[in-house]
What does this fold into?
Amino acid sequence: MKDLLHPISLTVALVGLAFLLRDLPARRRDAAWAALTAVYLLSALSFLFSISSMWRAIDDSLGTRNLAVPLAQSCVVALLACQQVVLSYWGSPADRARRMSRKWLGSGLAVISGLFVLFSLLTPAAQRPTDFTLYYAHDNIYATYLTLYISAYTFAELYLALACWRLAGRSPRTAVRIGLRIVSIGAAVTLGYSAVRIGNVIAAALGTSLAGWEDFAWICGDVGTILTLVGWLVPTITAQVQRTVYGIGLRRAHRQLHPLWLAFHRAVPEIVLTPNNSTAGDRPPSQGISFQVYRRVVEIRDGQTAVRPYLDHDVRTASEQRHRAAGLTGDELHAAISADQIRAALTAHTQGTQPTRLTDYADQNMKSSHPIEDLTVLTAVARHYTRRERSAPKDIIR
It folds into this structure.
């Protein structure tokens, strides 16, 4: 059972590690993020060391017997301490979180030191990658070793389950609440593994065995850990998906704005603040898309300002009548009118024809109190401008 479940758990840990490493450079000063990354790395190592083939490879390369036991379990103790560090920073002020983190990491280091000391006193002559605990359960030194390990494991998992559930209730973010509750459930499931291991110690003292419960122990341990790893990932994946969707939206907006921006650039080249590698086409740059889109919005607005003296009241009136007759209302109506106004104003600007009666852009009636809303307004205007250009490029309202 162990060799069936551990590769699955290892894969989950490595996938989670890949997601976290993607954001680590930008969060290198985020202690909670670093601790969470360590959780996935240590989790992957613990499962890797415990797989029978790796277990044997470690023994053969180092000339030892069953060294994978303290290596894997030390990784587990370390990752449990790191999970508490994450919780400390997520749920407490920075100063208190630092103090709590030092205590958790110090306690983890003390347990790991104790495990290696006790293991060094054990003389496991037989290599037992699949049933080590059952084989050595009657050894008093190993019983002490297992008691130390499982006591630390049980306390940390129980504390994690309760703390995550409480913290989830205080979090304003849905993804964090869901993730923490999954972590809490996963930690609770791992207590089944703890129960069997505690039972191993008691059974050995009573001269019996819990061999029939080994599969249950590994199922609880691996399934609980997988749930925990998935739970920690929920906020991260949610944030990355949101950023990806946002980036795709910005690139789409960059392309949508290009025809309108290009029309202004041809008529009023001075709107371009500095040389721009996107002037020749509508493909956005590979980096800095947020800045490039913001810049494009600013330059279009500058272009609108430049041709404002050529806005004809009659053009606006005729456009409004036509689009209302076509069934447009609200912001779509204002965007369509603004597109017609821009087209006519650019032509009048090129010809130097001043209107007899001035007006203003219809898109002023559209809400645009901050850059995101302004982008929404201009993409709507650009969409109508492009649509009109494609359907009747020579039909300019006069």
Q: What stands out?
A: The two ends are 79 Å apart (CA to CA). Residues 393-398 have pLDDT under 50 and may be disordered.
